[in-house]
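Retro notes, structure queue

What went well: the backlog is down to a handful. What didn't: a couple of records were mislabeled last round, so from now on we paste the full input next to the output in the thread. Example, using AMP-binding protein from Oryzicola mucosus:
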Amino acid sequence: MPDSSPKARFIADSRLVEESLPGGGVVWRNSIALPDQRPDIFDRLVGWAATVPDRPLLTEPSANGRRSLTYGETLAGARKLRRVLEQAHGLCKGDAVASLVPAGIDALLLKLACLAGGFVHIALPPFPFRDGGDNEAAQSLLEALPPKLLVAPQGHVAVDTLSAISIADLLAANAEGLDGDIPHAPHDWAAVFFTSGSTGAPKGVPITRGMISSNQAAIAALWPFLTEAPPVLVDWLPWHHVFGGLDNIFKIIWNGGTMHVDAAPGPKTMAASIALMQEVEPTLHIGVPLGLRLLLDRLETDGEAAQAFTKKLRAIFFAGAGIDAELWRRLAEFRDAQGTFEILSGYGATEAASTICLSPAPLERPGELGHPLPGHRIRLAEMDGRTELRVAGPNIAPCYLIGGKRVALPVDEDGFYRTGDAAILRSRADGIPVFAFDGRLAEDFKLSSGVKVRTGPLRAGLLAQCAPLADDIVVAGENCERLVALVFPSRQSADTVDLLEKLAERIGEWNAANSSSSTRIARFDVASEPADRAQGELSDKGQIVQSRYLRNHQRRFEALQAGEGHAPTR
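Corresponding output:
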């Protein structure tokens, strides 16, 4: 009889295998091998279109409910659009097509048409182009790999200001010819995504077809539940980010599933999102803190909706580095109450085609990054008192694209990509060793005394101390004598009359237990407005980009240093 335990249902027998580098040092790999057979993602689409042509691949909101596209329709539409791009616009293999088209059926057809023709699909972030693209940020994105064609939604201002082609016009055009696809190779570039800018200016990252195949083959090998039945996913993540626009949609195509594109989470959209989940019964939920928090706000008080959401749910997945202790508590309690799914996490980067690590077993606590993907190796390198996570393997991009030039990725002497993130190796309660997040090295700074402040662990500790009053906290004090903080209140606590008093008590308790200059908060205040995504202060995952926020609000933190704001209770 097959084992129906949670671990057997979700996880293959993943173990960390320790090896020595020739020049010294230790690396770890996964005991599960990367499959030798790693077909191209477009060939996976062709296969599913032949075997299940009428299965929905993608649905999206429309004026009449939802618009749907089957696997058979997707393949035919992508091939037709590929011929339009060739015949009407002169594109050849290797030419670049830049896109401002948001997640949905039109964006999918363009993405897959580029794969069919061997064109490089550039996923442009929308914010720099919202007023037409006549700004330094937009121009730097277009210069990374100059496109032969820019495609935008119908009516977008870029149609006039940048001579973009409307996606509606492209899809309405006719083309002649057969449906044969351009020959391709694993090293061919398939796409360009831009880094989120969390720790610096966005950089273009070329993604090869082989990177996509190795990523999806490794994920399926590590998480066999994805292959047991076609996954069903309700997803709102933007497609200009590698998480949503590469990993999620190709995970669906690789495994023959269905994605239902949803509106971004918010107080006004959650009712419709819950109704959609009740209708389609997802098997997988992939979230970031913003969406998970809003989802739980509804499901914790609506038992019928919670039952419908979890009826076929196998797993909730989130990036392990990005969830606070209070949100984890709520998520774990919701799982325990429902008893039908597991919580899994992972870790990745644009430079790694999205994924580097995944959970080897149901999550025990936040911060777990998991084990390296099959076929990849990880090392921990000493960096000023902490250890940086570095990775090597077939998922790593060939270079950066900056100003039309290829720029090498930061790699060490052994060829490992330097992520810029600190990590540790720790044992779980069940004895399984996993890598765990230990903060971003680029966010660390020094006080005027020379004492180093480890920003990531400090913010995490303060958030846990202030839960559930705060959604995020920004800490400042570089080259100053003391630390100050700005607290972003949670939605539930924002209107609390005694919020300041409660925060003063919580931070005072923190100071009593963490009295060193690198952890003690001297002054604090409460943010009156959320971080501004348009100004780069909020990442696509809904998390505050500390470095950008500090730069944009320098005077606010200078005022706190000068004595404004509030003092923690002594």
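Agreed that this is the format going forward. Reviewer comment attached to the example: The first strand starts at residue 16 and ends at 20.
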